[in-house]
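Sialin
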Amino acid sequence: AIGFFWAILWILIYVDSPDNHTYISIIEKKIILENTQQSSNNNDRFHTPWRAILTSSVCWALFIMHTCSNWGTYTFLTSIPKYMDEALGFDIKSARSFLPAIFVLGLAFMTCQHKYTAVILLTIGVGLTGCCFGGGFALVPNDIAPAYAGIIFGISNTFATIPGIISPYVVGALTEKDPNNWSIIFFLCTIIYIIGLIIFLLFGSSELQPWAIKQIENNVLYDDLLSKQNNETTEKILNLEN
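Predicted structure tokens:
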């Protein structure tokens, strides 16, 4: 139901270009168009500053943070049913960032005598992990390099898929012989979360990077936008007078 409601909102609000958006000002349109690939009428002239991206400490802070965060996410996604069965004694058939780290750390001390508390901590931890994506580092590429946001996030997401491959093997190796080793798994998740947090706080940024600034070679697009806004304003005035 939530997905359907979101789809309706998306259809009503989404537009293909800032130029066609009715709810943002001409100045905001100009800023967006100047700092994205849409500012160029010739896509063949768009060049990616690969060296600047791959040598940027800000970008690498993002890559590391994304990867560390995904370690916890993939651990939750792939191993929680196993944890609830082996450590908490739940019947599976009936039945992520600093803030996620706090609640994941709490799981390390949970036993089957505290299984409902463990479920609450797990739910909060997963929920806060989602907040990291919705309003955290996932938005950084748009801030530091709007014109290359897709490329930067693509690189970041490539690194961040590695935990999805490694994490299940680590969980399996640690719990195969001793289910009590789940505490080690959650301690490991907490440490990885905090490492990502510290690196991002030290080297990360949300400021527009100098190498990401694109210059518009002509003002034709801006003039078109200004003319369009003036026409819309004139139409509104005429409608009010009538």
